[in-house]
């Protein structure tokens, strides 16, 4: 089996812990819905037997450079929101586990032309799927002030979301906001000096989530995963911000992303999933030092319960 090198593409976060969380069965069927550099997929394949299968999803064509030469792996170039449809297409009714490393890969941050990073002045793009049409420039130049304020509040959790939206509208009336540098210039007076980078990063996060419809895709994927899992099957999900983490925590505790507990006649919560650990697993101090992207990471592991009799 020949493996492509992908060390420069993306450093996998919580590699051992997340794959341990899947409790790999050698002949099982697994999905890595965020293939990226292939690090997590390689580790899953290392633990699978000859009869095991792994489906790897990624909507970014750049990830295809890292496809592993292994007959047990099927690569699906698609958004993970369609995981259930693709499993049906491949004849898989149920799976033994699903792994997701959410958020933006280090490759996207390092590739300046993609417009994900504050570090360089680049076209305001932020599309994870380059075939998609909506860009961050479209959002900041065409959305209404009210829509922009809503995005900044909901997805960026910015306290001054209204002021940020007003600044963007004011700036674009003079000239279109076409680059990351122009975006920062339009809003620089709104962020306190000591928190400037952190607050600007929240603004970038809000735009990225809107451009890629991340919350809707995550909700759809988690619901499908819950349905696909066999009893005893595992979810192993790495999150990077509170919006993602809340949805993952809720699905594992109540079976839905809203956290709405459904109870039976006797008042017992009717949850199809159960968390394996009460608290999320976080990277070691050593990993955080070596891989700064991991500093906000949280790993949650859930198990599919047996159907109620």
Radius of gyration over C-alpha positions, nearest whole angstrom: 20 Å
β-strand amount: 5-15%
- Between the first and last Cα atoms, what is the distance in angstroms? 44 Å
Order of helices and strands: HEHEEHEHHHHHHHEHEHE
> Which secondary-structure class do the elements indicate?
alpha/beta
Quantity of strands, as a count: 7
Low-confidence segments, given as residue ranges, are 1-7
How would you characterize this protein structure?
This protein is of the alpha/beta class and 309 residues long. It is built from 12 helices and 7 strands. Strands 3-2-1-4-5-7-6 form a 7-stranded mixed β-sheet, with helices on both faces. α2 (39-47) links the parallel β1 and β2. The N and C termini lie far apart (44 Å).
Index terms:
309 residues; seven-stranded mixed sheet; 12 helices; 38% helix; disordered N terminus
Secondary structure elements and pairings:
Blueprint: H1 15-20, E1 29-32, H2 39-47, E2 53-57, E3 73-76, H3 83-89, E4 95-101, H4 106-110, H5 136-142, H6 145-154, H7 161-174, H8 180-187, H9 196-212, H10 214-228, E5 229-239, H11 242-254, E6 273-275, H12 285-290, E7 298-304
Helix pairs in contact: 6-7, 6-9, 10-11
Structure described in brief:
With 309 residues, this protein is an alpha/beta fold.
